[in-house]
């Protein structure tokens, strides 16, 4: 019977159920066929299981007052907000529920919490951490490892501090820094890790550590000189560790196979970490696709060359260095590798395919690449004015990726340059874990559709090796 409620949902039940929570999202569960459909609200974080039935592998804590965890194909899982209602529905109700969620008709949507309530919750969480002897970084590491209590505490701390930052921005005199009415940060899980993501442009991952300093320059200045905007106050850089150049190079070289493998997986390469380790040791691996084999070899050579530059003190944040690294990393994939679009004979390039299949264009090259030269010089000048090498690297990585200076391989070369800048200043390298590929793609989608790099920069800041 439709609308028959229950307090707990398990695989022992039958039929279709609508699970509603504190967010606008509704989860529709076909228990008998073990299928899950996520119907996001207008302010909900987009996910890879939105609007389509996916095979449900597991469901845990689907109970009133609890935060359910949905496991689905691909070894992925999603943790939702606390459940407020579980109702049996008829099959003909599914389309209505999905449309209603998209229109924001979920009656369980909560009212905004006051600053006093948020501050009390934050202080309580910090007091619990102190009693447990946990630093923010240790809490984040336990959350990443899947420790349930730490995951919940970490997610709630990030959500609470994100909402407080939202209130702070609402009080600012700079309209560019004010959040929209639908901006709402919350924690979510994909794969093995719990991360915080904002649901509207202009906001960011709360990350780990203390709030960062105020952002540099106006949004207009950022856009004119770098082609992107960001809110520096919302980008936590505490996870980028500082030591000596020698120490960061040692860690970089020790983890080179993992760094290369991560970068390859982000490009869709199917090689295993074991195969990459073998290739990095100089031994050929049989049975590999030629294109994938060449991509791995190019990544290894580019990272090795980067390490040589940093060790010799010759790394420079300049076009010549970028061209040299791109020529190596894009050797087998990018026409005119090592040259900006418009400089060589190749025509086109610069188009970026988003997660939904649509495309976004990079900066038009102009005659002989003149527009890209001007953008690159303006970007370098702006980056050079930033006092923190970590922000310099993050801005460069995002701005270079958005501009699409080369025909292909732009994100890889941008991260190589950012890593070179970090290591040259005694900070650890950036390496996006393969397990966070979905989150990386979401951050890139935000960058390319809004020119707002805050989410991507915050994400990259949480992806350094240690």
Walk me through what this model shows.
The protein has 466 residues and is an alpha+beta fold. The chain has helices at residues 94-102, 115-132, 136-144, 148-170, 219-226, 245-254, 256-266, 273-280, 290-312, 319-329, 370-385, 389-403, 410-424, 437-450, 454-461; strands at residues 4-6, 16-21, 26-30, 35-39, 54-60, 69-72, 76-79, 83-89, 186-190, 193-197, 351-353, 359-361. The protein has an 8-stranded antiparallel sheet with strand order 1-8-2-3-4-5-6-7. Helix 2 (115-132) runs antiparallel to helix 4, helix 7 packs across helix 9 (290-312) and helix 11 packs antiparallel against helix 12 (389-403). The longest helix is centred in the middle third of the chain and has 23 residues, at 148-170.
């Amino acid at each position: 019977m439709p609308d028959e409620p229950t307090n707990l949902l398990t695989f022992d039940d039958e039929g279709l159920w609508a699970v509603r929570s504190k967010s606008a999202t509704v989860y529709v569960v076909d228990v008998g066929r073990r299928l899950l459909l996520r119907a996001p609200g207008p302010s909900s974080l987009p996910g890879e299981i939105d609007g389509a039935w996916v095979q449900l592998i597991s469901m845990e804590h689907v109970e009133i007052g609890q935060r359910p965890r949905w496991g689905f194909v691909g070894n992925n899982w999603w943790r939702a907000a606390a459940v407020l209602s579980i109702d049996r529905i008829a099959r003909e109700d599914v389309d209505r529920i999905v449309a209603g969620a998209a229109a924001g008709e979920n009656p369980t949507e909560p009212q905004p919490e006051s600053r006093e309530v948020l501050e009390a919750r934050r202080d309580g969480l910090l007091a619990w951490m102190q009693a447990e002897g946990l630093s923010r970084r240790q809490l984040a590491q336990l959350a990443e490892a899947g420790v349930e209590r730490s995951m919940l505490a970490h997610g709630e701390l990030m959500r609470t501090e994100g909402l407080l930052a939202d209130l702070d921005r609402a009080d600012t005199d700079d309209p560019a820094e004010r959040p929209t009415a639908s901006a709402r940060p919350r924690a979510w899980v994909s794969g093995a890790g719990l991360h915080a993501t904002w649901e509207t442009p202009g906001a960011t991952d709360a990350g780990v550590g203390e709030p960062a300093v105020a952002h540099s320059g106006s949004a207009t200045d950022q856009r004119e000189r770098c082609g992107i905007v960001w809110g520096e106050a919302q980008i936590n850089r505490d996870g980028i560790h500082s030591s000596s150049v020698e120490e960061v190079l040692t860690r970089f070289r020790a983890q080179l196979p993992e760094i290369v493998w991560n970068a390859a997986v982000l490009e869709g390469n199917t090689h295993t970490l074991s195969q990459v380790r073998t290739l990095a040791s100089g031994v050929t691996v049989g049975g590999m696709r030629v294109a994938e084999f060449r991509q791995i070899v190019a990544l290894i050579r580019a990272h090795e060359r980067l390490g040589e530059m940093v060790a010799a003190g010759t790394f420079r944040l300049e076009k010549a260095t970028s061209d040299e690294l791109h020529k190596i990393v894009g050797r087998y994939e990018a026409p005119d590798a090592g040259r900006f679009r418009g400089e060589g004979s190749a025509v086109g390039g610069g188009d970026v395919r988003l997660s939904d299949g649509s495309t976004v264009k990079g900066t038009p090259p102009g005659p002989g690449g003149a527009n890209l030269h001007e953008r690159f010089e303006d970007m370098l000048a702006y980056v050079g004015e930033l006092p923190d090498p970590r922000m310099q690297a993050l801005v460069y990585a995002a701005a270079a990726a958005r501009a699409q200076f080369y025909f292909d391989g732009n994100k890889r070369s941008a991260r190589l340059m950012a890593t070179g800048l970090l290591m040259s200043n005694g900070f650890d390298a950036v390496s996006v874990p393969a397990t966070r590929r979905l989150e990386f793609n979401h951050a890139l989608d935000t960058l390319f559709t809004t020119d707002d790099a805050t989410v991507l920069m915050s994400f990259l800041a949480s992806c350094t090796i240690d």
